[in-house]
Design goal:
35% of the residues lie in helices and 25% in strands. The chain is α/β, with parallel strands linked by helices.
């Protein structure tokens, strides 16, 4: 088998720091093309990573290039259409989180991937962290016993990203869709991905646009996308989710909050026989009737590289990736159930006609 020919769609920051450098470093990959609506931005990035072909239209690129796979690194609302186009041309797909912003679209993408027999993966990067993999071993081995509670949070004091992230027409939501998806996905995956029964959530635009001195924020690589002219999304989200088997999950995320900074992804899992935390990774239990704490010794890894290399390996071996479209669709369902609960002020129970109708329309918010 020759080198895999891969194209990257979207010439933004995540493409530059995570996808392009790690595809370039893989010995079995040829970076074939970069596509972006902004021709100059695509050209500059292509030159930086030694990519010969540049396109401003994805359809044209897929017709002109013999590609094995694409990475989709564009605003959230564009994911579904780009995935459909890529699958229609018979290529494998890695799409940045979230999979999409609509439950109906998510289901259709899962079906399209299955019909075409493609390798399709959602970029849930935190699953590839070495410390996460370590605590997953404890949970999967049954060292915690029956699990009953998990909590996850990322709380920034002032860390609202600039640009399209605050424009719901492009992002599909605020901090919940941006960083909340990571916290929710990781906690849910760690405890075995149980079926969601109900969701209760609250979304708040608490701080909004701010002029805080010395506050740093994520900046787009596109100079025309570095202002928050539109701010119609939440910057704080909290949720309480109930799952089959009696487990519950509590979620807290913020871009900006008047409280202590805790912007590393934190996860705590509680079971009848033990508990475990992430950042730092510590296992808690009782031994000989004495409470004990065991710090896990884990070396850090280059998890973006491990994510990209995993995708390449899955293509080569034609096996399902760690983060499938089906799992990504279920995360979208949870995100939109939280948003619907916040919009209606009521708990959303899965399977009810009202929740299904609202979910099909993007969460009812």
């Amino acid at each position: 088998m020759g080198k895999l020919r891969v194209a990257v769609i979207g010439a933004g920051t995540i493409a530059k720091v995570a996808h392009l450098p790690n595809y370039r470093s893989h010995p079995d990959v040829e970076l074939a093309a970069v596509a972006d609506l902004d021709a100059d931005r695509a050209r500059h990035l292509a030159e930086e990573f030694g990519v010969k072909a540049v396109y401003t239209d994805v359809q044209t690129m897929l017709e002109a290039e013999q590609l094995d796979a694409v990475s989709i690194c564009t605003p959230n609302r564009t994911h579904a259409a780009l995935v459909r186009t890529a699958l229609a041309h018979g290529v494998d797909v890695l799409v940045e989180k979230p999979l999409c912003t609509d439950v109906g679209d998510a289901r259709r993408l899962v079906e399209a991937a299955q019909r075409g027999g493609r390798i399709c993966m959602v970029g849930m990067t935190h699953r590839f962290r070495s410390d996460v993999q370590a605590i997953k071993r404890f949970i999967d081995a049954g060292d915690l016993g029956r699990l009953y509670y998990v909590r996850a949070h990322i709380l920034r004091q002032r860390g609202t990203p600039a640009g399209w992230f605050t424009d719901k027409s492009k992002s599909g939501g605020g901090c919940l869709m941006d960083i909340g998806v990571h916290a929710l996905d990781l906690a849910w995956w760690l405890v075995g991905m149980p079926d969601l029964l109900s969701a209760s959530g609250q979304l708040v635009a608490g701080i909004g646009r701010y002029q805080t001195l010395t506050a740093s924020r994520w900046q787009s690589s596109d100079p025309d996308n570095r202002d928050n002219q539109v701010f119609d999304v939440e910057d704080f989200a909290t949720a309480y989710l109930r799952f089959a088997g009696g487990l519950v999950l509590q979620l807290e995320v913020s871009w900006a909050v008047n409280g202590p900074q805790d912007d590393a992804l934190k996860v705590d899992v509680f079971g009848e026989a033990g508990g475990i935390t992430l950042d730092p990774p510590v296992f808690y239990t009782e031994h000989n009737r004495v409470l004990t704490e065991s710090k896990l010794s884990v070396e850090s890894n280059h998890f973006y590289q491990d994510e990209i290399y995993h995708f390449v390996e899955c293509i080569q071996q034609r096996r399902q990736p760690l983060c499938t479209f089906d799992q990504g669709a279920k995360v979208v369902q949870m995100l939109l159930a939280i948003a619907q609960s916040a919009a209606t002020g009521r708990e959303v129970r899965l399977g009810s006609p009202a929740s299904q109708a609202s979910s099909e329309n993007g969460g009812g918010k």
